[in-house]
Design goal:
The protein has 249 residues and is mainly alpha-helical. Helix content is 46%, strand content 8%. The chain has nine helices and six strands, in the order ααβααββααβααββα. The strands form two sheets. The chain has a three-stranded antiparallel beta sheet with strand order 1-3-2. A three-stranded antiparallel beta sheet has the order 4-6-5. Helix 2 packs across helix 6 and helix 7 packs across helix 8. The chain starts with 16 loop residues before the first helix and ends with a helix.
């Protein structure tokens, strides 16, 4: 019986040159992935953890995962044809495997094995592929369902390892944006990211002349939602304390 991982397994005669390059320590030979290819790859890694009973995914499930409105930046409306083309491209690079059996084709990722990264690093790369550039603190929150990092320093450590990777960096620390307290990180699977200008022009009224990036806007919305939830919790706590002490509001 032939190996199911033909072209990926080191014992197979059809071993891919991508595998040889990674295991021999040569600089990253993987061609830059398109935005949709990173979305497909990230969705497969994510769904393996969040809906394991449905994994590997069908084409229909993969399209839905790529186009979902939450936890995605930017939001897409990819067609089945476009997603299938991205799957085929990723299959040619051994990053996606089509599983056999059943009436419908299903697809699984080969992400960690091809890139030779641990699961913690794969979780960070997945979040960056699905949500765009993020700070270490934001990544710790967005990766919770993929891997639970003990603290921000653990996230930072894995990011630094990915940036200093001998076979070629997979992430890049971006310049700090005006008014930001932390630097954001971006993945390099699609090549060098377009960076926002570190200094924005000031308008006459003192405001910033530059528009917020999609990543910054998403981060601000997430922070506002978190603060609103904390306010609601604090109000409930105050009401409970007042009731216990017999204090009228």
């Amino acid at each position: 019986m032939g190996c199911r991982l033909q072209g990926i397994c080191k014992n197979c005669p059809g071993i891919s040159h991508f595998w040889l390059a990674y295991t021999s320590g040569v600089a990253n030979p993987l061609p830059a992935l398109s935005l949709l290819e990173t979305r497909v790859l990230g969705t497969l890694v994510e769904k393996q953890h969040t809906v394991p009973d449905s994994y590997p995914l069908t084409l229909n499930a993969l399209v839905s995962g790529c186009n979902q409105k939450t936890s995605r930046l930017p939001v897409m409306e990819a067609t089945e044809t476009e997603v299938q083309a991205s799957i085929d491209s990723l299959k040619s690079r051994n990053l996606v495997i089509e599983t056999s059996g059943g009436r419908v084709a299903r697809y699984a990722h080969n992400f960690e094995r091809v890139l030779q990264v641990p699961s913690q690093a794969a979780a960070l790369l997945t979040s960056l592929m699905l949500r765009g550039p993020q700070t270490a603190g934001e990544l710790r929150i967005s990766c919770e369902r993929l891997h639970s990092f003990s603290d921000i320093s653990a996230v930072q450590g894995f990011l630094e390892e990915l940036a200093a990777r001998q076979a070629g960096p997979l992430v890049l620390e971006l310049p700090r944006l005006p008014g930001a307290r932390e630097n954001r990180w971006a993945h390099l699977l699609s090549g060098a990211p377009k960076q926002d200008a570190p200094v924005a022009e000031k308008r006459a009224d003192g405001g910033s002349g530059g528009d917020l990036s999609l990543g910054e806007l998403a981060a601000l919305k997430a922070n506002v939602a978190r603060l609103e939830a904390e306010v609601v919790a604090l109000k409930a706590m105050v009401e409970r304390i007042c009731a216990e002490l017999g204090i009228e509001k």
